[in-house]
Write a structure and sequence with these properties.
Blueprint lengths: L24 H36 L6 H23 L5 E7 L4 E5 L3 E2 L7 E5 L6 H5 L8 E10 L2 E9 L17 H8 L15 H7 L6 E6 L5 H15 L1 H5 L3 E5 L2 H7 L2 H4 L5 E5 L15 H8 L2 H12 L10 E3 L6 E3 L1 H13 L4 H25 L11 H12 L2 H10 L5 H10 L6 H7 L12 H12 L4 H27 L1 H6 L8 H4 L2 H12 L3 H7 L7 E4 L7 H9 L6 E5 L13 H9 L3 E6 L1 E2 L4 H12 L9 E2 L8 E4 L4 H12 L6 E4 L5 H5 L17 E4 L9 E7 L6 H8 L2 E9 L11
Parallel strand pairs: 2-4, 7-13, 7-14, 8-9, 8-12, 12-13, 15-16, 17-21, 18-19, 18-20, 20-21
Antiparallel strand pairs: 1-2, 1-5, 3-4, 5-6, 10-11
Helix pairs in contact: 1-2, 2-22, 5-6, 10-17, 11-18, 12-13, 13-14, 16-18, 18-24, 19-22, 26-29
Bound molecules: adenosine-5'-triphosphate.
Protein name: DNA helicase
Organism: Streptomyces fulvorobeus
GO cellular component, one term: cytosol
């Protein structure tokens, strides 16, 4: 541990630029220059915002009725609304840095790129994701990357409040007066600041090891592993923003999916990307990944493990085959028909089933093949009965008669209900509900753990991968819908064709308009593409469309707390990423006991073999060294060689433990009163069984599945605390936690940690 050498919070020199503080002439000049720049930048943003707002209004006002005008209008509205939203979102702390190059050029760095309103569209503010901005994050005195100086700029609204300079050219004697000798004042201030219950972005202070992960190539699978507080989540979110910027065409169109462990976590991280001006992202828990199903139910840990286990895939596949039935041999089904009863025996059904299975199509798509064979066989039976020559000659019926008979069989309600009985059309929901009512092809003990009577209990997150698996096995016979959609498309093509012809006729008119540099519609587009574009323009954003489409292939998928996902969940996610463009973020030491696959190799082997990148983040930015030392003892009790990530800070405040006597909730209430911060947040992390008792003693504090993390005091179960952080944490009755849950709970605080207990403490926490 490096705690001895670490600066203490508050011990770093700060350069607060306030009224009344004496500044040297040089400092005043520097400050004036930055203030002047920030003013100019905001004036430009105001102008852009005004133009965008006006543009949205203009674009919404119809200027023409043609297809071209409509298309352009829709595109303009979308573009300008997006620009407006981005400008509004990034307004706070728009510019946060400046790099001065050795050749005298300087660039200001910010959340988005802004250009001057001049003919050359000179860059005014460089987007943090642009290659030019990279030295801001990577340059060191050892490798200055062409930089003389790096400046961090802190603003409040439009006022510059702090400047921190780092000299990167060690031969440069020039000083501004704002030098930060340690180079980490801004980082430490960010880490020590009060929490709000919502994660903030780290764009001002991304560290070099994090920058490399954020900007790694998008193809393939990247595993980001690291202990608590190493910034895995922050890095993953900034990576999403980077990929959307770098590959706007490729990735924004297909959207980015971010999968997190629960709704509270998603609301915790939900503001990071909008603050970076990015909205093309779908945030979802596992329970939300099957459109139309909101998985609100809960499972026992055992049921979660069984439902998530790899053998479920095979069991479901076999269970689907069981729904393709045959009559008992020797007990044929009799089908009433106007021309006399028909007999459907084992042989006929067997051959039809074989032919349908040979297509290798999913159940519902193979069903028409089964039906066709059955109808064919029954028609042959009828033909034989009606047209047979009693004297053994050829059948009296001609092809037209036979076709007529076939039609009669094909539309017979009786025939249809027999086919439905032998090979029913199934929805994933009815199939999985049926399977859970009577689980087969798994050991009886496992079946007992997941058995659920039809209609009993809600869908659970662990059911979602089963529903998705079932949807794959069953397929959806959407031929009727597709035929209808194609008919609509053809109409649209015909309409577009008409528009293009009109547009050709008005060619001179289009080009007479000197102001307009736009090409006429027919120069750039044919009718089919125009029809397609109209369809695209009609639609929702990529993220919204993706949310509603089970078969959507995402541009990139980020999985947080990836160590928690089951083999069945991985199958689901990999279907959503046919190109295997994924970032997986996790910490095996924080895996819940019953969850997970075990190792990244095991998770990924079925999908990409050993072709994945693996990086480790090694610095803990959240938990002070004093708290981390205690948390590490919990894991060392099981694995003496365990090494936690090194904390970047120490606070001098030791974590404390307090025994309560009988009135545990009373002791918790007293500790909460002591710890409740005037600013920031406090979490009480306690076994769920104690929540009611504890909540009764805490004013205005409730427990529940979706806690409001923005409240000053929050009561959570250990699993709910995963991925979150608070200024202060009170852990209650740690003997009721599993090892990894306890490790998670102990590593959530950025400042202070207290432990209150009535029972004996776990061995690792004793003696404090
Ligand atoms: N470069 C940075 N600059 C400022 N803050 C940072 C930086 N890196 C990480 N942090 C902060 O450290 C805290 C922990 O980050 P994060 O939640 O991403 O860690 P994690 O590795 O996902 O942790 P866990 O596994 O415990 O959930 C957050 O408050 C984050 O904003």
């Amino acid at each position: 541990m490096r705690s001895q050498k670490k600066p203490r919070i508050g011990a770093t020199k700060k350069y607060h630029i306030q009224q009344g503080v004496m500044l040297s002439t040089r400092e005043s000049a520097e400050l004036h220059e930055e203030q002047e720049f920030i003013g100019r930048l905001h004036d430009r943003v105001d102008a852009l915002r005004g133009a965008a707002a006006e543009g949205v209004e203009d674009a919404m006002t119809p200027v023409g009725t043609g297809m071209q005008a409509r298309l352009e209008r829709e595109v303009l509205v979308a573009e300008r609304s997006g620009l407006l939203a981005a400008l509004d979102a990034v307004d706070g702390s728009l510019c946060f840095g400046r790099i001065d190059l050795s050749d005298g050029v300087a660039h200001h760095i910010g959340r988005i790129g802004i250009r001057e309103d001049d003919p050359a569209r000179t860059p005014l503010l460089i987007d943090w994701r642009a290659p030019v901005a990279r030295p801001f994050y990577l340059a060191t005195g050892h490798t200055p990357m062409g930089l003389r100086r790096r400046r961090h700029i802190t603003t409040e609204g439009r006022r510059v409040t702090e400047l921190h300079d780092e000299i990167l050219d060690l031969g440069d004697r020039e000083r501004t007066g704002f030098e930060d000798p340690s180079g980490d004042a801004v980082l430490l201030a960010a880490l020590g600041s009060a929490r709000t219950g919502r994660m903030g972005d780290i764009v001002r202070t991304i560290q070099a090891e994090q920058d490399r992960v954020i900007r790694a190539p998008h193809q393939g699978v990247l595993v980001v592993e690291g202990g608590p507080g190493t910034g895995k989540t922050a890095v993953a979110l900034h990576r999403a923003a980077f990929l959307l910027y770098e590959h706007r065409e490729l990735i924004a169109k297909r959207a980015v999916l971010i999968v997190g462990p629960d709704p509270a976590f998603l609301s915790y991280i939900g503001e990071v990307l909008p603050a970076l001006g990015e909205t093309g992202v779908l945030l979802a828990t596992q329970g939300e990944l099957f459109p139309g199903v909101r998985a609100r139910g809960t499972d026992t840990p055992r049921a979660v493990a069984v439902k998530g286990g790899a053998p479920m895939a095979e069991a479901l596949a076999l269970a689907v085959r069981d729904r393709q039935r045959l009559p008992e041999p020797g007990a044929p089904l009799v089908v009433a028909h106007d021309d006399g009863d028909l007999v459907l025996d084992w042989e006929i059904a067997y051959e039809a089933r074989q032919a349908a299975r040979d297509t290798r199509l999913p159940h519902n798509l193979a069903r028409p093949h089964f039906a066709f064979r059955i109808i064919d066989a029954l028609t042959a039976q009828l033909t034989e009965r009606i047209g047979a020559d009693p004297y053994g000659g050829p059948n009296f019926l001609g092809p037209d008669d036979i076709a007529q008979l076939g039609k009669g069989v094909a539309v017979s309600g009786e025939v249809h209900s027999v086919i439905a009985e032998l090979w029913p059309e199934l929805t994933p929901e009815e199939f999985v509900a049926g399977y859970l009512a009577d689980p087969v092809y798994i050991p009886e003990a496992d079946a007992r753990a997941i058995r659920r009577a039809p209609g009993e209990g809600a869908w659970t997150p662990a059911d979602v991968p089963l529903l998705d698996e079932a949807a794959e096995l069953l397929g959806r016979d959407d031929s009727a819908e597709r035929a209808a959609a194609e008919a609509v498309r053809q109409e649209r093509v015909a309409y577009a064709q008409g528009v293009l012809e009109l547009s050709r006729g008005s060619e001179t008119y289009e080009f007479e308009d000197e102001e307009s540099e736009r090409l006429a519609a027919h120069d750039i587009i044919d009718a089919e593409r125009m029809a397609d574009r109209q369809e695209e323009a009609d639609h929702r954003s990529a993220a919204e469309r993706a949310a509603a489409d089970r078969t959507w292939a995402f541009g990139h998928i980020i999985v947080d707390e990836a160590q928690e996902l089951s083999p069945m969940a991985w199958r689901l996610l990999m279907r959503r990423s046919p190109t295997r463009s994924l970032t997986l973020v996790g910490d095996p030491a924080q895996t819940s006991e019953e969850a997970g696959v075990g190792s990244w190799e095991k998770i990924l082997e079925p999908y990409v073999g050993d072709r994945f990148e693996h990086v480790r983040l090694k610095v803990n930015y959240r938990t002070p060294a004093e708290i981390m030392e205690l948390a590490a003892r919990v894991l060392r009790a099981e694995d003496p060689s365990f090494e936690p990530p090194g904390s970047v800070r120490s606070t001098g405040e030791m974590p404390w433990t307090r025994r309560s006597g009988d009135d545990l909730a009373g002791a918790v209430a007293r500790a909460v009163a002591e710890l409740t911060p005037t600013e920031g947040r406090l979490a009480v992390i306690a076994p769920s069984a104690l929540h009611e008792e504890i909540a009764a003693q805490l004013d205005g504090v409730t427990a529940g599945a979706e806690p409001d993390l923005t409240r000053t005091v929050v009561l959570l179960g250990p699993r709910q605390a995963k991925g979150l952080e608070f200024d202060h944490v009170l852990v209650v009755e740690p003997s009721g936690f599993g090892t990894s849950d306890l490790y998670v709970a102990l590593t959530r605080a950025t400042r202070r940690l207290g432990i209150v207990h009535r029972e004996e403490l776990p061995e690792a926490l004793r003696g404090r």
